[in-house]
DNA sequence: TCCATTTGCTACAATAAACGTAGCACTACG
DNA sequence: CGTAGTGCTACGTTTATTGTAGCAAATGGA
C-alpha cells in the first residue's frame, strides 16, 4: 500500500473543502472503527496492533491499519516502540469529548 | 408511511451483543453520515429530506434515508409533518456531546 | 546458533456498503 | 389541469470493508 505523503493526500477528508475543520473531523470520525479505536485507547491505554484488533471484535487488520494510519496522520494516535498504539495529547483531548458518551449510552439503553 | 417494523431486521447494531450500550452507540454513530446528520440538525434545526441532503454535500438519498431510519429508530431523530427532520429530546442530549467538537476541530486545524 | 513468538503491516479475493441517477406516490398550491 | 414540493425507493456502478493468509523484522529462549 502506498504511503500517504503529507497531510491527507490520498483522499481529501469529506467536507474539508468547505473550509470548516469540523467537517473534516466528522468525516474522519465517521469512518468505520475510528470512534471505536479512540474509545479502546481511552484513559492512556496502550495496545499493540493485535490487542487492538482483539478489542475491536476481531475487525480485519486491513481496515484497522487504514484507520490507524489516518488517525496517526491526523495526530490523534501514535505508535510507541515496544509499547503499541496510544493516544497523543491531542488524541486524549479528543477522547475527552467522548467520555460523556458512555453515560449517555447507558441512559439511551434504558429509554422507552 | 415508514414501515419500521421490517426495516430493522437487517442487522443488530455492532457491539450490542456485548451488552455494552456504548458499543452499540459507537457502531451507530460510526456509520457514514450519522455524525454529520446529527451535526446538521443541531440547535433545534429542522430540515426537510432534501435540505438535509444539500447540507450533507449532496450525499445520495439512499444512504441518507437509511441513516435517518436508523436514527429515528434509535430515537435520536423524528420526522415532523410539514416541518422536516429534527432531533428529539434524546437526540439533542446526544448532540450536546458533540458541540465541544467544533471548538476542538478549530484547535486541531491549527496544529503543528 | 536455531527455533518459536510476536510485532507492525500487507495481498488478495469476496462481500457489504455507499454512490449517483432516476423516478415513484403523495400533497399543496396556482 | 400543471407545476413543484415532500418523503422515499430501485437499481446499476463504484468504493469500502471483510476474512484469510502471509510477509519481514525484532525478541527471547534453548
Model description:
2 copies of one chain form a homodimer. Chain A is mainly alpha-helical and 112 residues long. Chain A has a domain at 32-109: Winged helix-like DNA-binding domain superfamily/Winged helix DNA-binding domain (Arc Repressor Mutant, subunit A). Chain A contains 6 helices and 2 strands; from the N terminus they run ααααββαα. Chain A has helices at 21-29, 34-40, 49-55, 61-73, 89-96, 99-109; strands spanning 77-80, 84-87. Chain A has a two-stranded antiparallel ribbon with strand order 1-2. In chain A, a hairpin with a 3-residue loop joins strand 1 and strand 2. Chain A starts with 20 loop residues before the first helix and ends with a helix. Residues 1-10 of chain A have low confidence and may be disordered. The A-B interface holds A 14-15, 18, 20-27, 29-36, 39, 57, 74-75, 90, 93-94, 97-98, 100-102, 104-109, 111 and B 14-15, 20-27, 29-36, 39, 57, 74-75, 90, 93-94, 96-98, 100-102, 104-109, 111. Chain A binds a DNA duplex (30 and 30 nucleotides) through residues 1, 31-33, 48-50, 58-63, 65-66, 68, 79, 82, 84.
